[in-house]
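Summary for the steering committee. The consortium agreed at its last meeting that each partner would contribute one worked example illustrating the joint modelling workflow. Our contribution is presented below. We chose a case with several input lines so that the handling of multiple components could be demonstrated. No manual editing was applied between input and output; the record is shown as generated.
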Amino acid sequence: MDKRKEFEALVREYSETLYWLIRRIVLTHEDANDVLQNTFLKAWNAYDSFNRDSKLSTWLTRIAINESTDQLRRNKHLASAAAEDLSVAKSLLADEFFDGDATEAMLQEAIASLPEVQRTVFTLRYYEEMKYSEISKILNTSEGALKASYHIAVKKITEYFKERD
Amino acid sequence: MNEEMYIQEKVGKRNPFRVPEGYFDNLTAQVMQNLPEQPERRAKSVFMRPVFYAAASVCALLVAGAAWMWRPAAEVSSTAPVQANAVAQPQQQESAEGYFDEAADYMMLDNHEIYAYLADSY
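What follows is the complete predicted structure of the assembly.
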């Protein structure tokens, strides 16, 4: 099959799943769309060197997470440059593409306050319900370290809610 | 109560995010439209390849030279006093390290670039 056609089939198969994963990390639709486009651009440019023994979904998820993390860093830089202090929860509740309630917005704010690794591990485990063995392959981290990160993330989020109850 | 259960009971796992109408219908076409016709490989690896081979040759020569200088004392001269060789060695070592630094400076390569070439080549 033509390489481009083969890649198009891959985009069709994985784009929606990857979009939701990215969206849960970067939160806004605009950013998620940009990150998704960049993810496939990176994947296309590295497609020839992709090791066919590896799982395609693992490879794509890894690129998507790296791109999402880069986007968060860029946003952080822009936010501090503009000295914006609007909370994540308030921003989400004002977003036309967020239809959650205040508690759901608070959970997103709590997740957003976590360090990068804990945030990623929590998203993959809690929402995607991914096995630690799979997360380990994506993030290239030991299962023990991932379990510790998830446990700390859950504890911090719980404390976040209890402090505001 | 289990802390994970606390979060699940308080918030749940519902997806609160939405996308514009018809977003996923056009997504594949939109992604494909933004891709170049052919994958774009980094130009640097092709451009720098001759430099890498030159650097590898210089390193090989330096290693061969160092091995020759530090060959066992008995092979250098059976009549030379052992003490003289023992005193001379640190000086030679310093001198060889100097050659490596000079060579690296001359080639304007650092370890990251060498690793990048090795990654590209294999």
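Chain A has two domains: 1-85, 86-165. Residues 1-85 of chain A form a domain with the Rna Polymerase Sigma Factor; Chain: A fold (CATH 1.10.1740.10).
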